[in-house]
Fold these 2 entries.
Entry 1:
Amino acid sequence: MKNVTDPFLFLGFWPSAGSFGLNTDILATNPINLSVVLGVLIFFGKGVLSDLLDNRKQRILKTIRNSEELRGGALEQLEKARDRLRKIEMEADQFRVNGYSEIEREKLNLINSTYKTLEQLENYKNETIHFEQQRAINQVRQRVFQQALQGALGTLNSCLNNELHLRTINTNIGMFGTMKEIKG
């Protein structure tokens, strides 16, 4: 069985002036190739991913600001409703003899409708934030996958020509035959 570090140990035995050779040992070259591909993906994909995340962050922050503005409007409506409630209570003191129960019903209806409105606005804000977050995550995942795939295909297409491809296949077939003979 061949040791994984064997190709690196024989580097000292290569002549300093001689022909240039290509290491076709897959076990020695795959980690190097993978590290180069990963380095290129990280180097070139970092900026794009950062820009995508910043854009999504700005959209989400804008949605949150809009929701906060809606919430502020709802709070203003609540304050107006409370002012109106105070006025109604003053009128209730004046008309207590004539219809105290009617005024109480109006007050409760006003409070209930205001709270329902606030609750609906809060639910809408939360749903919008959740939807935007999920959409941003899905878009980033798609974009990263597409860019990684395009980068890997580009690297493979630029590095693998017909001659190298045939030599790699022949080497692998030879290694397979040798392994079969050793086992047989």
Note: DSSP finds four helices and no strands in the chain.
Entry 2:
Amino acid sequence: LQEVSHKLVAKIEAHKRIIWACSWNPHGHQFATGSRDKTVKIWTVIVSPDEEACVKQLMVLPQFASSVTALSWSGGVGLCNGLLAIGMEDGLIELWSTSTEKTASDSLVPSKFSARPAFRLHPFLCHASTVHRLAWRKNHEEDTGGEMTLQLGSCGADHTVRVFDVKISNF
């Protein structure tokens, strides 16, 4: 048997309504939370030298038209760049491009975090109702010309699974 231990390192009241989704940035200390309050918040976990942790809110994305029910963060090349897939109660899926810059090499706190809309999947390709899960996987190694292809899988309350090829240029 494996021995497993755990401890709570941080607890914060993060949204005004139920939180339905969260996802870690696979290449950084940031994570995103999505809620019935129609918001996505980006957080970072800061661990001090004495191993005390705290959670700091980096930003709140503009409010969405529908409740956020699913999140999946794909790391790009570089420490903290990537795509955040956001699934909503109305079945729509949006992709947001994220990036982080650090000024000091020893600092875990980003000096600048940004997120911007990258792409909204066409409603006819999305789910007819609530998106329940989103998951990324790397589809191909780096293609010529600085492109990378990922696959985004989604499942929803409409009893369907959808898989999208997502090509990222200039990563």
Note: The mean pLDDT is 86.
